[in-house]
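fwd from M.: "can u put these together and see what the complex looks like"

so here's what she sent:
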Amino acid sequence: MEKPDDICPRSERVAKSPTAPHAPPIYLSSVYECRDPQQADALLGGREAGYVYARDGHPNADLLADKCLRLHGTERAAIAASGMGALALVVLSQLAGGDHVVVSNQLYGRTLSLLGDEAARLGITSTLVNACELDEVRRAIRPNTKLLVVETISNPLLRVADLPALAELAHASGAALLADNTLAGPVVCRPAQLGADWVMESLTKTMNGHSDVVLGLLCGAQARWQRVPAVLSTWGLAAAPFDCWLALRGLGTLGVRMDRACHSAQAVAEVLAAATTSVEAVHYPGLASHPDHTRAGRQFGERFGSIVTFTLSGGAAAADAFMAATAERIPFCPSLGELGTTLSHPQSTSHRGLTPEARAALGIGGGTIRLSVGIESTEAVIEAVEEGLAGLG
Ligand SMILES: Cc1ncc(COP(=O)(O)O)c(C=O)c1O
């Protein structure tokens, strides 16, 4: 009889079945068995398709990437361990010392750090611009500009830049356009169909939608993809199988979640816009008063996203009072795209790294609140917001 010491370490196989599982299995295996050295050589050399080592690729990342690739209509997609990992993947695979990038000044704070201080350490320079001002973007482009970076709905003031025009500007000088589509997601916007060469998303947010995963997506064309797989593996940016499995499951309901959330966001924006005594400004691309409303309609179709940003007249004290009054129903969570409605305070979270002057120039003050509208009933979200406004006294 075999010893337990010899039985236990042996890898077991699932019995073959004529039926297939309806839900995808989770392939946690870090390594795959090769038939012989010739097969290992063919797999590692890319002459045969298949898996060898999970940092290079695994079925759960591929299933998720395939779904995202179809959502965005691109030739290739890769999953990284975070949204920042997906951005690092572009920087490390496409840029080198001596290159220059033009960067929207309305980006997620860590993205600004990556393309500013961190890129500078690699010899990559950058110029910040208002991406909604095409002349400013044109003036910033240099002969060594390789990348133009913009968010399709900017954070937190929800500006919508002209993607086809930016793509044309970038391409005219041999640069590529990278669109961070995190706040919109593919239900609202498909940037590759509007001229973007690279689409990046934090899957951590609405795409997964259940607050239990940190993951990133990069989509692009085959012609630019050559260095991406090697950089993903060599810099250790790959995602774990279980996280990919969870995100694929979350994605299953993306359409219905976004339908509800976008509908409620529009209704909440209208309630806030009517509260003129306590609310100084409401930023929502679905409002006719939004500076980019017409462009958003052109680029997004009928949905304008699940995020609503507003500024209370009473500054930071008013924001504190609003949050205290509604804390039971709208938790303060410095992220977005959760199942339920949450809020964040850009001055003390995502934009805390900026000087007060820089924040003021962007229109972010102590009274600015970013609401991430969830899938509760529209009436419940409106009631919760009205409760917050009533708390202002
Ligand atoms: C617009 C935007 N881009 C990128 C990121 C980074 O994504 P992750 O947190 O998944 O690394 C975030 C995170 O908040 C974000 O809001």
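replying to her w this: The mean pLDDT is 96.
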